[in-house]
Amino acid sequence: MKYFKTVLEHLKTACVYFTVSQFFITAVYQITAQNGTKGQFLLFETELILLLFSVVMSVIQDVFKIKKLSFGVKLLIHFLCTVAAVVLMFISVTKDMTNARTVVFLMIFTTVIYAVFAVIALIVRLSKDKKEKESEEYKPMFKDKPKK
To answer: How far, CA to CA in Å, does 71 sit from each of 53, 121, 136?
Structure first.
């Protein structure tokens, strides 16, 4: 039952990623198409790659559930996996591995977007931690020794 619940959780998250990435790619497709897209949609193969990308991104989120790593290490691992997933998805969709300039631009663009979201996440996390510490009751570190 726990496995089924985990799969459903990943699929829900993947749906959100798919919707956002679908909107982004469709917007870019509409903007860059000459004379508009004339009602054309993305290829089915592209949709499948986008769905696979969304599932992979959903699984990458599990990095933040590892308790033994510090938040900075989790963020670094998540960042590297995210950039790799975006680049591999781009290469799969365009089938263009030869254009290194485009791949480097994509990596830089992904890094900038990731940095914006990471800063927002860090600010939220720091404010949450601060509120938790302020509301925490004082616990003495040393106990009084019993008198004899």
So the answer is: 24, 11, 21
